[in-house]
Amino acid sequence: MSVSIQTALMALLQRTAHPILSPRPELPWASGAVFNPSAWYDGTRVHLVFQAVTAGYRHSPLPNAQNNLLAYDFTPSVLGYATSTDGLHFTWREVPLLEPSEASDRYGLEEPRVTFLEGRYWITYTVRSTLGPGAEDGVHIGMASTIDFERLEKHGIIGPPGHSKGAVLFPRRLGGKIALLHHIEPDIQIVYFQDWEQLLQYAVYVWTEHLADIDEHVVLRPARLWERQKIVAGAPPLETPEGWLLLYCGVDETYTYRAGAALLDLDDPQRTIARTRVPLLEPELPFEREGVSPGGAVVIEDRLHVYYSAANKMVGHAAAPLRDVVDFVLEEQRRSWSMPRVYMLSTQGGQAAMRTLAQPVPVTVERLHGGQPVLEPLPQHPWESRVVLNPAAVLVEAGPELEQLMHAWELSAAQRERLRQAGGACVMIYRAQGAEGLPRGHAPSSLGLAVLTPTLELVQRWPEPIIRPDAVFQDLGAEDARCTRVGDTYYLFYTGYTTENPRFPSFLGRVHICLATTKDFIHWELHGPIPGDVNAVDNKNAALLPEPVDGQWLLLHRPLYGPHPMAIHLAEADRPEGPFRSRGLFMASYRYREFALSWIGAGGPPIALDKRRFLMIYHQGHLDWEGHREYDLAAALLDFNRPDPVVARLEPLMRPTGDQEKVGDPLLGVDNVLFACANYRWGPDLIIPYAAADSRIFGARVSFDALLEALMRMTTTEATTPKS
After folding, report:
1. Of 16, 173, 501, 535, which one has the fewest beta carbons inside 10 Å?
2. Degrees (nearest 5) of the Cα angle 272, 277, 279?
3. What is the pLDDT of residues 174-211, one digit of tens each?
4. C-alpha to C-alpha distance for 148 and 193, rounded to whole angstroms
């Protein structure tokens, strides 16, 4: 952490120099440790509920473990209670507030969280029905409630089956439903209940559906090194005009605990408005040695009071103006990256796994033309003066069709002969941006046209774009096209960026999948957003398969929100122009040890093989633990004869190398990016035109047979993805 950030945080959060609650030898139930506090302010008093254990409590294995089993000196925890009128000086109740009393909690009540909702204080906590760390099947979420902290009603386990903890209720209903944050490692998830009866009596039905696709319900994931191991919700979310302020606990690989903060959308908490890059609190004072974990937060006279567990032994306190904390989180986001939530697979072959990109690529990929760009920005063309990127491309082999196209293109005799000698033409439709609107505004994208040889030597480039951002459905830009030939027509599916109906008021616009068709690449019919349900949410990266499967035209696409976001979905239609009906998730990213987040999207239209099989190139996007972005290219073998068509995945096929692929335009480019929207067979090779660093266009080739053989060697177990 830099000195300037440390100084800012010290000034922001003023810690109390000593614990505000410590173990009390005269109270046996609280003589060992008091920690994991939660708090609620009723306008007069702060109610503090905390975890307590007797002296002699140990969390480490004892030396007399036998038969390869760990033995633990494990004393059941109870919940204690204290009150304060100033938020700093507390009066204890000298008997426990809540104790283990049944089989489901006989080994302890832990990590309480207090929320006042609809006339009652609801206390969620973790219960243990089995002994010791590692006995995860016995860890559940329990609940009790009270109106006065005098008489408590225990409601028992509210779910889910299996290991879950860190449950926190929102202090009001969202969309008419009761909302609960909880933690299944390593993320924070959200679950909704229709009413109290469903939550307290019939929760098992909600949890069964919820757990079937747990990744769909993620609110926050670990995103920095200091929270790499896991994150857990801390205090119940505080409502502010800017969003729900959520304090959470981040745990690194040394199991040091720190406090983080995020602002979540008031209506859709799965949308993160802002999040701190650095912890708000980390161990500094002597009594905080092993870590600080926030569990309570209240606002008294516009000042935020944070109560945290210090080294799992005592309760610490820090305070700051609420406005300053919110402003700090927002400012941190302005200097950081933002990303929609991402659907990632947590398991591999039914087993927990963390994948790595360290394995060598089993095929040789050659950068064409010595790794030099095949297309670069042209300063004399304002619409493409800064960057050219993300090219669609189709191969037209030498013959009557190419002759007709060359006539329509008005190529010179020398240009025509060059394409004939080359054996065909690569027709490239690429995205371009100029300096308009820079440096602080938005530079709209246009689509340009170029003709190259099949091995990507430039023959002709048009001085004006073929599709401009001048229609209402793409007034912010036309982007990232993919082109598929059907009969004598070329279908161009591309991303339209529009100011119409943005998903959130803070967004400049929204993106949706649009269609344009042509027969000569000069004259285009713009059909606008494609019909069907695929544009119900922001959507992009659409690629039409080159032939129907079982009479249906299939479209790959990547929703940014909704179920299974930032993953490849599949849609079907009776005709190539739609309307398209979504089939849901087709292929998701895996978790990678090297990266905090990973997501995937289709590259060019998949190449038809035989018997309903296809070879697909796609991109993998990543954010590392410090927020830096990388895009790689990967390959997959698809077989629609199988229930799960994703037969094999080769990840990655290509990663950025050299300055031209790693360093982008300072205003519009993005470093460390390879992005492909096209691929085609040429002789024995697969040709992949691709963009690098969002700034210039390159080409690569790989032996088609070698790539297919490598995919065939991949095991189905490694490739299998769950269906929605």
Report:
1. 501
2. 110
3. 999 999 999 998 999 999 999 999 999 888 889 999 99
4. 25
